[in-house]
Amino acid sequence: MKITYSLPKELNDLVEPIGMSNGLTSVFIEVLAISGSVLAKTNREKELIIWLAQRDQSVVGIGTVGFDIDEMPWTIGSFESEKDFILDTISNAADGLGWGN
């Protein structure tokens, strides 16, 4: 089974969706949730990480966690800071934040 993460369908020509196996999806979500949990300072940042952690397929079921980026609970007034937080979360996850020694 392949789980897919993507931009809205009308933007798929610009950025190809990411497809992952169930095992890789579990690791992907968990590593992002760990990084975001370490970085989150505001309630809004915590809410974004909680939303992401709720896509953990060990909780909701194998093969049910794919989503489009526009399904994330962005807010109009804080979108830029939310986007920056998620990008920092991704960057720090790639650097091993929260799962190192």
Question: Mind explaining what this structure looks like?
Answer:
- The chain is mainly alpha-helical.
- Helices cover 49% and strands 11% of the residues.
- The chain has helices spanning 22-39, 43-53, 57-60, 79-94; strands spanning 2-6, 18-21, 67-68.
- Strands 2-1-3 form a three-stranded mixed beta sheet.
- The chain starts with a strand and ends in a 7-residue tail after the last helix.
- The model has no long low-confidence stretch (mean pLDDT 80).
What characteristics describe this protein?
101 residues; mainly alpha; three-stranded mixed sheet; 4 helices; 3 strands
Radius of gyration: 13 Å
How much of the sequence is in beta strands? Answer: 5-15%
Mean pLDDT: 80
Strand runs, count: 3
Low confidence ranges: none
Structural class per helix/strand content? Answer: mainly alpha
Q: Strand order, main sheet: write it out.
A: 2-1-3
Query: Whole-Å distance between the termini?
Result: 32 Å
Order of helices and strands: EEHHHEH
Largest sheet: 3 strands, mixed
Helix content: 40-55%
Q: Which descriptor suits the 3D outline?
A: globular
> Helix tally?
4
Break the fold down into its secondary structure elements and pairings.
Layout (H helix, E strand, L loop, with lengths): L1 E5 L11 E4 H18 L3 H11 L3 H4 L6 E2 L10 H16 L7
Helix pairs in contact: 1-2, 1-4
Give a nutshell description of this structure.
By secondary structure, the protein is mostly helical. The protein is built from four helices and three strands, in the order E-E-H-H-H-E-H.
